[in-house]
Amino acid sequence: MVLLLKSLKDLSPENHRNEVVVPAYTCYSVASSIIKAGLKIRICDIDDETLSYNIDQLNGIPFDNVLCILTANLYGLPNQLTDLEKIAEKHNVYLVDDAAQSINSKYEGRYAGTFGIAGIYSLDKGKNITSIDGGIIITRSRDLSDIIDERYRELDSPTFRDNAVTAVKILIYYFLLNPYFYWLPANLPFLKLGKTIYDDKYPVKKYSSMLASIALLQLSRIDSITSSRVDNGLWYDTNLSQNTMVKKIAVLENVSPAYLRYPIRILDRKKRDSLVERYKKYGLTISYPNSLDKLNEIAEHVVGIEECHVAGKVARQLITLPTHIFVKEKDRLTLCNIINSLSE
Ligand SMILES: Cc1ncc(COP(=O)(O)O)c(C=O)c1O
């Protein structure tokens, strides 16, 4: 994301454009990447039903200094991407389609990540395909791709030690992904599992060919990897009930979701927190604990702060359920029973 945003800044013919518009509920590393790229963050609230942008608030933003609008496509659920493409076009700014969590999902028949001028996919932990580190940038612009290539060549390469450490992490990760072993990391507080902490200390380096070969291997099986996530996500969607305590996230029309995880809202924060505390051993987690407008670490880089009531509420209510290939019928049944038994 840092590389892409810096390259986009180079591409822009208008030097004063230094703001990146982000949905108020997204991954903290999106915010830190914008700051690392030397740009400013403009935050916009999200929609109460879909977690996608609040389109009215987005349309009301002053676009004079905006370089690009970022999508979020959280949990494998694409945002309203064609609308966002139109808004970006109307205001003469770039759209960057952040499909870090949405590889292989589609909106109106097009893959998330392919909207706007460029998109990214993350290969980090917990993603549909993962090499623990790294990511993919795609772009339809030859000029942008040339700038990215040039900037990429200037990055440091990972050292042998970097690669060795990552290889060990990959082995541990696959071992711990099995629900049978969830109790183990859940009881190791130093792993800070399920906790999102703001971090801007990560290096921006070249991707190693060793990791690329691991990611490519998975990429060749992406449909089958995604299909188990989709099966589990759809199963939760059918079997979880909504009531005054539980609210589902609406999937937009014409979406093929990839369900990286299954998000759902527990409307009472205390109940949400105690649920997660009791059942984190089953892979139940909260997502981002704050909306970006409430994240102190980034405050000095934020411009034109808007009230983001919905994002704040979602941060207090959301939980996510695991959907990966090792989640068995009895695991999802257990989670479903726990949530369905919540009463007022
Ligand atoms: C929406 C979103 N964008 C960007 C990123 C950053 O990806 P990475 O972790 O590969 O740096 C993430 C990571 O989870 C994400 O969820």
Provide a descriptive summary of the structure in words.
The protein has helices at residues 2-11, 28-36, 55-59, 81-90, 142-153, 160-176, 183-186, 209-219, 222-239, 269-279, 309-317, 329-340; strands at residues 19-23, 40-44, 66-70, 94-98, 106-107, 110-111, 118-122, 135-139, 246-248, 255-256, 261-266, 285-286, 302-303, 318-322. Strand 3 (66-70), helix 4 and strand 4 (94-98) form a beta-alpha-beta unit. With 344 residues, the chain is an alpha/beta fold. It starts with a helix and ends with a helix. The chain contains twelve helices and 14 strands. The protein has a domain at 222-340: Aspartate Aminotransferase, domain 1 (Alpha-Beta Complex), CATH 3.90.1150.10. A seven-stranded mixed β-sheet has the order 8-7-4-3-1-2-13, sandwiched between helices. Strands 9-11-14-12 form a four-stranded antiparallel β-sheet. It has a three-stranded antiparallel β-sheet with strand order 6-5-10, with no helix packed on it. Pyridoxal-5'-phosphate (PLP) binds next to helix 2.
